Amino acid sequence: MKKIGRILVLVALLIISYLIYQEYQRRNMSQGLLVSISDEIDQDYYNNELVLEYYHLADQLNGRIRKAWHNHLKDIRDQKENDPDFINSQVSFNNEHRIYKTIEKKLIFSKNEKLKGRTNQDIFTLENCKQYRLNSRSCKLNNWILFEYGDTDEAIKIVQKKLSNLGYTLPVDGIFLSETETTVKSYQTKYGMEPNGKIDLPIWLHLFGIESKKEKL
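Given the sequence above, the corresponding structure tokens read:
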């Protein structure tokens, strides 16, 4: 009986030691697993909401990394885990990480262009201007139509969210349909712009507080 008792005590000690070791691992996750903010991004990007979204996504991704480590003691990027909850979190992480890297690429591009002497207005033009009913590569400011009925884009979602925050009622889904068109017309009418129902350069600059200056192209 004493021998059995010693064995049971030894087993208990091993289990306790293993649990203590697991807790130690949970509390000492490698910081190298976390998503880091790039030093190369443009902190003064023309759309400050996108910069804030970049930081928000970084926090959200790191939250998922910490949770996966705490629950499974594994990096959320590990492809060998079969636990359904882990896999679901991994799918969400991968989707968010793709958006995070897309924003990061945009912000790095902006900073690099500013090092060449470009302004926020220049960056905006390079990124967003698409020509509308014009064949020439040079176009006047008021002809720049960024998005219109039927378009789908993450930038549309940013505009919809901004309008929603200002008290307008419309979906925030990145899809430019009739409700968004009507809301854009209302906003344009209110502030003396041409009520064409399209997200053009003047309404974008007005919404996000960027100084609108007509420049020679």
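The helical segments are 2-27, 48-72, 84-115, 120-128, 154-165, 178-190, 201-208. Try to locate this feature in the token string yourself.
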